[in-house]
Amino acid sequence: MLSRRSFLLLSGALITTSSWAALSQQKTGDTLYASAYSLDKNTHFFGLFNDEGTILWTAPLPHRSHAPVVHPNQSIVGIVGRRPGFFIDFFDVSSNQRIKRIEPSKDHHFYGHALFSADGTQLITQENYYPTGEGRIFIRDWPSGNILQSFNSNGIGPHESVFLNDQVLIIANGGLHDPPKRRQRYFKP
Question: Which residues form the signal peptide (predicted)?
Fold first, then answer.
């Protein structure tokens, strides 16, 4: 069981975590920043920029996106479709190419975040089973994206998860049953 003190310490770390990610380019050692952004309601991109804010390259995305996920030991960044998200696009930042797209399981959508295991061999995704609102956590093989295991998040709307340590995954359930059709009335992709 997580102690109150550990939870508060972790909460402080989560509050300071940005929705963009920093990574080091393996060839040059320069720090780059990855982010999703939109120019208008229908024009969405993934981009890399430097310390000065200069955009170095961009790639179009099919819909609004949320948070990047950085591979721990490869020059790979994924960008997760914003809730209700139906894709995670992965890019090799050393070649500026999209290398893979992963889609959620049938009747599921992504919640905007994902994370890699410490060794980079597994991808963890938070998904919603929208007929019932049940939150699910999927452990996927990397780089295939094949599902290795899934389990109930014990809540509705598993927005994000982080590792507390090697053995504990903390899941932030949002608690809002938000099926794609209802959400699309308010937010057009």
Answer: 1-21
